[in-house]
Amino acid sequence: MYFRPFRLCKLFIIFICLIFVFYELNRLLFPRKSLSIIEDNDDVQMIINKNVEQISHKLEPFYISLPNFSDDEARNWFYGSSYYKIYSKKCPNGLCEEKGFLFNDTKEHLSVNIYIVKNGLYLNDDCGYNYGDDAIQRIFKNPDETTIIYDKAILYPVPDGWSFQHFLDGIGPKLSHSRSYLKKYPDAKVIVLQGVRFDRSVKEIWSLLGL
After folding, report:
1. How many CB atoms are closer than 10 A to CB 110?
2. What is the signed CA dihedral for 90, 94, 99, 102, rounded to 10 degrees?
3. Contact status, residue 59 vs residue 105, Cβ threshold 8 Å
4. Cβ within 8 Å of residue 154, ≥6 positions away
5. What is the rounded CA–CA span in Å between residue 165 and residue 161?
6. Structural contact between residues 126 and 159, judged by C-beta atoms closer than 8 angstroms
7. N or C: which end of the chain has fewer CB within 10 A?
8. How far apart are the first and last CA of the chain?
9. Which residues are paired to 117 by β-bridges?
C-alpha cells in the first residue's frame, strides 16, 4: 500500500469545501434567531432615538357602571349576555349594580401610549393593546414603499372602526387620549380603516369633531 499525499490533500480540500457549502446552506435556510433579535433591537433603539416620540401614561383602575335599562326585558337580556357573564366576575364583592365592572388589567386597560412618528411609513398594521413595537416604529427605506404621502397623519386603524359599536369601544378610547392632537394639528389627515359601509352615526361623530 502506497502513501499518496497528493490524493490525501485533494480529499481534505474537498472535505473542507463540503463543510463550507453545508454551512452556507444552513445559514441561508435556517437563520439564527439570536442574530435577528439583536439586529431588530438595534433598529428599534435607533428609531426611538431619532424618529419616534413616545408619550405614556398609566391610569388608575376604574369602574364602568351598568347601562340604564329601559325595562325589565332589556335588563334580563343584558344579565344573560356573555359580556355580563365575563365581566361580572370583576365586580367588587359581586355587587355589579353598586359600582359596575372593574377594569384593572395593566396592559389592556391602564396603559396608554401615544407615538409621534417623524417621517413614518404606515403599513396597515393592527392596533390595540396587543400591537408590537414594530407596528408603529417604521421608517422609509426607499421611495417605492408607499403610494400616498401626507405631511401629517393621525392613525386610528381600529378593525371595523367604521361601525358604531367598534367606533365606541375601539376608536373612542384612543380619541379620548389623543383629542388634543386633533386640535394641535388641524391640517393632519385622519386615517381609519375602510369597511363594507360607513355608519351614519359614526360620520356624524367625526363631523362633530370637525373632521
Report:
1. 16
2. -10
3. no
4. 178, 181, 182, 185, 188, 189, 190, 191
5. 8
6. yes
7. N
8. 92
9. 52
| 40: amino acid identity, one letter | D
In this structure, are residues 28 and 70 in contact, taking their beta carbons and an 8 Å threshold? no
Q: Which three cell numbers stand for residue 151?
A: 405631511
CA distances 127 to 34, 108, 157, 170, 198, Å, are 27, 12, 6, 9, 20
Residue 152 one-letter amino acid: K
Q: Assess contact for 134 and 44: CB atoms under 8 A.
A: yes
Indicate the length of the chain as a whole number.
211
- Domain ranges across the chain: 51-117, 119-211
- Least Cα distance to 67 among 55, 53, 79 occurs for 79
Give dist(CA 10, CA 15) in Å, integer.
9
pLDDT below 50 — which residues of the chain?
1, 30-48
User: Residues of 136-156 as b/e, b for ≥16 C-beta within 10 angstroms?
Assistant: bbbbeeeeeeeeeeeeeebbb
Cell of 209: 369633531
Q: 20-54, pLDDT tens digit by residue?
A: 666 566 555 544 322 222 233 333 333 445 677 88
**CA–CA gap between residue 113 and residue 130 (Å, rounded):** 12
> Rounded CA gap, 206 and 109, in Å?
24
